[in-house]
């Protein structure tokens, strides 16, 4: 894929990714903190319109990769390009234009606890757009309905919501700017299996109706099986397997094999006993 920084308009206009080119393109990425190197030459492509599940051992660097793609963590080497734009070559305006095209649901601190749900959802609108209060209020209700919440959730504080409602409200905030890419960090963690299943269905529905590309960090085997088009597995600081679930089940890499054929995978009905 060609990342042509010369085409990156300084006015923030964004060149389109050619059909068949990855929407997120990571090559030879090295990220570390002090003496520790976490990502050791990681490469990964995410294609437009897919739901890519990203798995790996706890502490392996999944959140670090997400945060590096978002430009929140500095890299030591390698390339990160989103929508065909090398993150390194961006002007301030170019960077802001890019940020409006993705939405993020972080694992921790999904919502600002001191703000109402309405204020949370309007936060990115205020940051990036110049809309009247009336229009923002209308959009807020539309986003809440999109994620299966009713309008009366808007005036609630996060502390008044159940865990599942917090995830949905956070998703509504991630959708506030009509993003093309959704980054989800452990979206179903903390939810019971039914709540997690419903959230998975919601993500699949949104992906289809809005044409989203979804990058999802998850440990949830059910999510990986039910909603992900492809899975990428992280081990030893690199992507060691990438492909549909069958690729994961066939992988000989020790971590991937242990994960997809382990006790939890078997309990969920996958793995050595055959994929369901
Ligand atoms: N800002 C930072 N400064 C120092 N170390 C960090 C920083 N951010 C992450 N790390 C370290 O990088 C490693 C990878 O962290 P990361 O949160 O990406 O793991 P993860 O794969 O997402 O884990 P989990 O599945 O448990 O959420 C951890 O050892 C973590 O302590």
From TrEMBL:
Pfam family of this protein, just one? ABC_tran
Top-level taxon: Bacteria
Q: Which UniProt keywords apply?
A: ATP-binding, Nucleotide-binding, Transport
Instruction: Write down the InterPro entries for this protein, in alphabetical order.
Output: AAA+_ATPase, ABC_transporter-like_ATP-bd, ABC_transporter-like_CS, P-loop_NTPase
Q: What positions does the domain ABC transporter occupy? A: 24-261
Q: Which Gene3D superfamilies match?
A: P-loop containing nucleotide triphosphate hydrolases
**Recorded GO terms, molecular function?**
ATP binding
SUPFAM superfamilies according to UniProt: P-loop containing nucleoside triphosphate hydrolases
By its UniProt entry, which PANTHER family does this protein fall under? PROTEIN TRIGALACTOSYLDIACYLGLYCEROL 3, CHLOROPLASTIC (PTHR43023:SF3)
Q: What is stated as this protein's family in its record?
A: Belongs to the ABC transporter superfamily.
Q: What is this protein called?
A: Phospholipid/cholesterol/gamma-HCH transport system ATP-binding protein
Q: Which organism is it from?
A: Ancylobacter polymorphus
The taxonomy runs:
Bacteria, Pseudomonadati, Pseudomonadota, Alphaproteobacteria, Hyphomicrobiales
């Amino acid at each position: 894929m060609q990342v042509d920084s010369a085409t990156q308009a300084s006015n923030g206009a964004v060149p389109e990714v050619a059909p068949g080119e990855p929407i997120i393109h990571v090559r030879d990425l090295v990220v570390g903190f002090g003496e520790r190197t976490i990502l050791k030459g990681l490469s990964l492509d995410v294609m437009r319109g897919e739901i890519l599940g990203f798995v790996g051992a706890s502490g392996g660097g999944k959140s670090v990769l997400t945060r590096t793609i978002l430009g929140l963590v500095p890299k030591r080497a390698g390339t990160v390009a989103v929508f065909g734009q090398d993150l390194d070559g961006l002007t301030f305006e170019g960077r802001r234009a890019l940020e409006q095209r993705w939405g993020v649901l972080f694992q921790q601190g999904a919502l600002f606890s001191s703000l109402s749900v309405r204020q949370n959802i309007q936060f990115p609108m205020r940051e990036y757009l110049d809309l009247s209060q009336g229009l923002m209020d209308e959009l807020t209700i539309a986003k809440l309905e999109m994620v299966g919440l009713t309008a009366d959730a808007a005036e609630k504080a996060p502390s008044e919501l159940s865990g599942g409602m917090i995830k949905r409200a956070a998703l509504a905030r991630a959708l506030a700017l009509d993003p093309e890419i959704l980054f989800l960090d452990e979206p179903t963690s903390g939810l019971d299996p039914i709540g997690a299943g419903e959230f998975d269905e919601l993500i699949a529905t949104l992906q289809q109706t809005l044409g989203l590309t979804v990058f999802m960090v998850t440990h949830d085997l059910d999510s990986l099986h039910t909603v992900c088009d492809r899975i990428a597995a992280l081990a030893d600081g690199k992507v060691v397997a990438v492909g549909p679930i069958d690729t994961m089940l066939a992988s000989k890499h020790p971590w991937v094999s242990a994960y997809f054929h382990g006790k939890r995978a078997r309990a969920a009905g996958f793995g050595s006993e055959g994929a369901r």
